[in-house]
Amino acid sequence: MSKANQEVAGNRVVVQFGADTMGHGPAELGRVLIRSFVKTLGTTGRRPWRAVFVNTGIHLTTEGSDLIEDLRKLEADGLELLSCGTCLDYFEKKEKLQAGRASNMQEIVETLTTADLVVRP
Asked: What global pTM score does this model have?
């Protein structure tokens, strides 16, 4: 489904990555789960419109992440990747962004409030 069709059909699914792990519990398991989630994201029939990365979630889009190539492929397939600029600054990673682009809270709030569905892994 093209980006235009996603918006017109009311399929604005946003994935919000609030951490670089998934779930609560052992961090090592959480890293395995988030990695699997990202790798599986592009294989589902319903593709997200945008992915928003906040707090430690920005570590997934920056230098050192083993998911950069997977995220770039999703981006090439039309998924817009937005990393919180304040978070990038806080972790001193603005210059290390490797996938997607830096965003601001205005765009993040607009994205989340106009989404038809927000998924939080």
From this structure: 0.90
Over residues 31-74, the pLDDT tens digits come to 999 999 999 998 887 789 999 999 999 999 999 999 999 999 99
Closest to 83 measured CA to CA, from 64, 100, 98, 68: 100
Q: Enumerate residues 6+ apart whose C-beta is below 8 A from 4.
A: none
Provide the 3-class DSSP secondary structure of residue 1.
Answer: coil
Structure token pair of residue 75: 């981006």
**Of 46, 41, 38, residue with least CA distance to 21:** 38
Question: How far is residue 69's CA from residue 81's CA, in Å, rounded to a whole number?
Answer: 13
Residue extents of the structural domains in the chain: 3-119
End-to-end CA gap in the chain = 22
What lies within 8 Å, CB to CB, of 80 at 6+ separation is 3, 49, 50, 51, 100
Indicate the class that CATH gives domain 3-119.
alpha beta
Closest residue by Cα to residue 73 from 95, 103, 43, 107: 43
